[in-house]
From TrEMBL:
This is Pyridoxamine 5'-phosphate oxidase. Signal peptide: none annotated. Coiled coil: none annotated. Residues 18-95 form the Pyridoxamine 5'-phosphate oxidase N-terminal domain. Pfam families: PNPOx_N.
């Protein structure tokens, strides 16, 4: 297995429609994984240490409730075709509850 460089990670994340698996946890640490469709924010650049990934979810979903209480998050985005590459993104979720966004 080889590691992707910054440009390869950025290109992978912006290569088209893919599903991420988002992992959140309750305050007690109970994990929850769910699929989400995402986009990379247009303000992001190829410096993946500052990339912004945007997704929506219903405000009463388990992942939304978890993220409101514990914003630490991990995403896994994987390619379903050989050679089966993937990217894992760890970060802090920022919740925007304004429907106009």
């Amino acid at each position: 297995m080889t590691n992707m460089n910054q440009k390869e990670i950025y290109n992978f994340l912006t290569s088209g429609t893919m599903t991420a698996k988002i992992s959140s946890a309750s305050l007690r640490g109970k994990p929850h994984v769910a699929p989400v469709w995402f986009v990379v924010d247009g303000k992001s650049n190829q410096d993946v240490s500052n990339i912004i990934i945007v997704f929506t979810t219903w405000s009463k979903s388990l992942k939304a409730r978890n993220l409101l209480l514990n914003p630490q998050v991990s995403l896994c985005i994987d390619d379903q075709t050989p050679p089966y590459s993937f990217v894992i993104v760890n970060g802090i979720a920022e919740i925007d509850q304004s429907p106009d966004e």
